[in-house]
Amino acid sequence: ASRQVLSDAPQLAQFVEQRLTYGLQLEIEREMLVGSNAQGELNGLLTVATAFTGGSTNLPALDAISKAIGQLIASDYSPRRIILNPVD
Questions:
Q1: Which residues are CB-neighbours of 82 under 8 A, at least 6 positions away?
Q2: Is the pTM of this model over 0.70?
Q3: What is the residue-level pLDDT of the chain in tens, covering all 88 positions?
């Protein structure tokens, strides 16, 4: 959209700004999770984190999460977020 169109239509300018901001937030989230540490990229959590191995495969998901949180707390960490696969 040209500057003239955006200045003539404040709602269009607001819509374009919101879409650009949303796209930027999605890219930041993607980099924080799966960034490859390539030039200009962050090193994502999934590329540097170790998988939780203290649980049993037959534990319900909430029990495994609870056990992982307990292990983090016992190691003097304070977990504030849990990242799950949408399938889970």
A1: 65, 69
A2: no
A3: 677 777 778 888 888 899 999 999 999 999 988 888 888 888 888 888 776 666 666 788 888 888 888 888 988 989 888 888 788 7
